[in-house]
Amino acid sequence: MIQVNPHAGAAAPATASILASKAPIAHRSAGATNAVLSSTQAAQKATTAYPDRPLISSEPMRYNVQLNQQITAVQQADGFLQETEKKVLQLNHLITRRAAGSEVARQAESLQKLLTRREQLSAGTVDRQLQLSLQSKPTVNFSLQDGTALLLNEQPELLTFSLAGRQRSISAAELDGSSPQQNLLRLNQALGKWGIHGQINGSQLNFQVSEQQWPEVSQHLSVQGGGERYPQGQFYPLKPQRESALEETLQQLVQSPASAGSLLGTLEQSLETVTRQRRNLQGTRTRVQQRIDSMATFKDGPATAIRASEDLSNLLRKGDFSTVSQALAGQANVRGARVRNVLAGS
């Protein structure tokens, strides 16, 4: 999942600091030692400080850009899910002990406000169903009225879809009625222009689109048919209905706290979902930590770093610069431990 640039480690190799220096050889040993010590401290900090927030703005040279983004996404997703889990538990507890309706409504409203900031607080990594989307953009599941009949109708028909919004766009699908699967294929070819993808779940036809595209799709998607499935000569609003989520349950609780008992099952299901997603995140965090650890140049503490620096200094004093230079040039493509072994053997 995590791709790391091998040239952008948490701690820059001490050997690079030595090559870059223009100072006489007599002064390089101390400079190299200091550089290696600084690198070692940075590597140790990367190991022990996690899970802090190593954002690029605060520590721009700590990790490469991609790893910074992934660490930040994981942390923000976990932070949002943790807060959501806490508030759902509190609301569930109030309903279970039959607290006053006003107290239930107040807690439901607090959770509702948190969910309205979901995209911002989770950095776009959690969708409406509280499912993680670390590798892709969050999506919205929705259905169309009489969507199943749209596929099962065996009569051929040309459907022209229109998506208005900022700019009107047209796409057509010619349904031949040969089979539901063939009709679905034609629909996906037409609607895929706007990032809409349909699939058959059992006997139901469901669609999916990115959250970013949903506002336009929900308000401005219409179709014109040939009089078989949809009217001819005019565009008919499709009015997509998105899948119910915790947000709708909370809205009902705020408006009618007396219905809390009947909604307890939905809350518990949402709680299970959040708990499962946090468990999945823990596996991701473990992989991130392993990647950070692998970026450390020296893993055995300051003593190893100092010893390696002294060895390099001795080699430079002997004037065998050609061998050292070749070894250092190859370090970009060779693991750090192997380079140190080569230098030590020289």
Q: Major sheet: order of its strands?
A: 4-5-1-8
**What is the CATH third-level topology name of the domain at 59-134 and 247-284?**
Four Helix Bundle (Hemerythrin (Met), subunit A)
CATH class of the domain at 59-134 and 247-284: Mainly Alpha
Radius of gyration: 30 Å
**Helix content estimate:** 40-55%
Class of secondary structure makeup? alpha+beta
Task: Present the secondary structure layout.
Elements: H1 14-20, H2 25-48, H3 65-96, H4 101-116, H5 118-121, E1 139-143, H6 147-152, E2 157-163, E3 169-175, H7 180-191, E4 197-201, E5 204-210, H8 214-220, E6 221-224, E7 236-237, E8 241-242, H9 246-255, H10 264-294, H11 302-317, H12 321-329, H13 336-345
Antiparallel strand pairs: 1-5, 1-8, 2-3, 2-6, 4-5, 6-7
Helix pairs in contact: 1-2, 2-11, 3-4, 3-10, 4-9
Description:
The protein contains 13 helices and eight strands. The protein is α+β, with helices and mostly antiparallel strands and 346 residues long. Among the domains are: 59-134 and 247-284, Four Helix Bundle (Hemerythrin (Met), subunit A), CATH 1.20.120; 146-238, no CATH class. The protein has a four-stranded antiparallel sheet with strand order 4-5-1-8. It has a four-stranded antiparallel sheet with strand order 3-2-6-7. A hairpin with a 5-residue loop joins strand 2 (157-163) and strand 3. Helix 1 (14-20) runs antiparallel to helix 2, helix 3 (65-96) packs antiparallel against helix 4 (101-116) and helix 3 (65-96) runs antiparallel to helix 10. It is flat, with a radius of gyration of 30 Å. This is Flagellar hook-associated protein.
